[in-house]
Design brief:
Helix content: 25-40%
CATH superfamily of the largest domain: FAD/NAD(P)-binding domain
Number of domains: 3
CATH topology of the largest domain: FAD/NAD(P)-binding domain
Shape: globular
């Protein structure tokens, strides 16, 4: 069946039948569309934002309106599983990224600048970040797919999915297609597979309710933050400042947790970088960092960020973007051993959304898309496909979701204590007993910083976990680290490492007229 190439000129595509419909044309949706096309299936990818693409990737950041992806102009780091998948499955696109100014940042570089003659092991080449602005990455990926995929197999349709078509055999529901509202009217697309990649604001509950089907159960836990981001470009003759004296990390990611405020520096493509500030949405005085002037004051108030925003080094190329109302959420499309709707699958944030400050969303969305396509390689029965994909998500994504829920609860408790003027790291109770949970947290926090400077093995473990190459739980599931962590804590226990600047000092700076 032919999928008309007229979508490239922005016209409504006369698509009436294909193998797979992907709802959402962002990174997870494009990954799914690519994976299914590579398997010889016909795919229609429907994207709600009907905005024209600019002529060049260098114009994407300033000109491409992607209102449906609220986080697209916030800080991103593309983690190792995504980097490795691109190298393996899409080497041509990976070359496009590098030619367009994206950069690979490796664990080996970090280790060489931390230790004398570090010993590397097989697998160290897999530990790598990709520095690229999210909007530039998505622009290049969509353009690559439109230019390289067979137009008889792939259509990119700009339109709004208004409803899900379903059929039933007794109490068994199945997906049969969607209705799309385009700029030229309504379009019905029939397909036996519908992939929801429309993000955390998915309207799947509305679609299923309208079809008389119980929607997926929704579980939510607060992330405990709002966050703000601003992008910068290096000035001519300037270079990325060092981070902790490590040249290699001048393009990596620096995370600074002041307890009341989290800050991150992220290198991007083409001599750009971004800074993100995150705080408790209930901490009203800190909401001023969402304003340009106060954001700039805040970046100059924190030591590690100050060299990056010096007038001789960089200049802002964006306003301050705000992102809030965040929760870790999970929708359950599989219940009592059966799918709610056969042929309906959700990936990325439409399925599981985790705190974006951890930077895992793009990589987990991409991997979920690949896992879904691989399910079709191994299973032909609709029930077995659903069960297999559910098992893959339980193994791949759910542990990170549960890990993030726990970590966010801990971080929020620390933040609240600081707002009350308390020391959240004091594990000595008034009665002389010890709060062992807080004590373990302090030992890990102090000891890990020490251990990563003393042992390339520990640094490797940290980088592998941050990059999703090992399962979560380094703190809880690695008893062999106990000696080094305890040694590090004992050597640094008397050092004052309380957050700098303190909350009162920080607020005084950003609130000054």
């Amino acid at each position: 069946m032919k999928i008309a190439p007229s979508t490239r000129a922005g016209r409504s595509a006369p698509v009436h039948r294909c193998d797979v419909i992907v709802v959402g044309g962002s990174i997870a949706g494009l990954a799914a569309a690519m994976a299914f096309c590579q398997r010889g299936m016909t795919v229609a990818c429907v994207e709600r934002d009907a905005t024209p693409m600019p002529a060049h990737h260098q114009q994407a950041f300033e000109q491409w309106q992607r209102d449906g992806a609220g986080q697209i102009r916030h800080s991103h780091i593309l983690l190792a599983p995504l980097v490795n998948a691109l190298r393996r499955d899409l080497p041509g696109f990976f070359d496009v990224l590098l030619a367009a100014g994206a950069e690979v940042l490796t664990f080996k570089d970090v280790a060489r600048n931390t230790f004398e003659d570090p010993v590397f092991v097989p697998g160290d080449d897999d530990i790598a970040f990709l520095s690229c602005r999210r909007v530039v990455f998505e622009f290049l990926l969509r353009r690559y797919m439109l230019n390289t995929l067979d137009p008889e197999a792939f259509a990119f349709i700009q339109g709004d999915v208004r409803g899900l078509h379903t059929g039933a055999n007794g109490d068994v529901h199945r997906a049969t297609g969607v209705t799309v509202k385009t700029g030229h009217g309504s379009l019905d697309i029939n397909a036996g597979i519908v992939v929801d990649a429309s993000g955390r604001h998915t309207r799947v509950a509305r679609w299923l309710t309208a079809a008389g089907i119980e929607p997926p159960g929704l579980e939510e836990h607060p992330c405990g933050i709002f966050y703000t981001s601003r992008f910068y470009r290096l000035k001519d003759g300037a270079d990325y400042p060092l981070l902790n004296g490590r040249t290699s990390l001048a393009g990596g990611v620096a995370g600074i947790d002041l307890g009341y405020l989290k800050a991150g520096i992220f290198r991007s493509d083409n001599r750009t970088f971004s800074i993100t500030l995150a705080a408790d949405p209930e901490d009203e005085p800190l909401r001023v960092v969402a304003r340009d002037r106060e954001f700039d004051v805040a970046t100059r108030a924190v030591d590690v960020m100050r060299p990056w925003v010096a007038q001789s080094v960089s200049e802002p190329i964006s306003k301050v973007y705000l992102y809030g109302n965040l929760s870790n959420s999970r929708r359950r499309y599989f219940r009592n051993g059966r799918p709610l709707v056969r042929g309906l699958f959700a990936i990325g944030d439409a399925s599981i959304h985790t705190n974006p400050i951890a930077g895992r969303g793009c990589a987990l969305g991409w991997l979920s898309a690949l896992e879904l396509a691989e399910t079709f390689d191994s299973e032909s029965d609709p029930e077995h496909r659903a069960a297999d994909f559910e098992a893959r998500i339980e193994r791949l994504v759910v542990p990170w979701y549960e890990h993030q829920v726990q970590r966010d609860a801990e971080a929020l408790a620390i933040n609240k204590a600081l707002q009350r003027g308390e020391d959240p790291f004091d594990f000595n109770r008034p009665d002389g007993t010890v709060d062992e949970q807080i004590q373990r947290r302090v030992i890990f926090r102090k000891g890990l910083s020490y251990a990563t400077r003393k042992s390339v093995e520990v640094l490797r473990l940290l980088f592998r976990q941050v990059n999703l190459l090992d399962p979560p739980g380094m703190r809880d599931e690695r008893p062999d680290l106990a000696r080094l962590l305890l040694e590090g804590y004992q050597k640094t226990a008397d050092e004052d490492d309380s957050p700098r600047p303190g909350r009162a000092e920080f607020l005084k700076a950003v609130q000054a007229p």
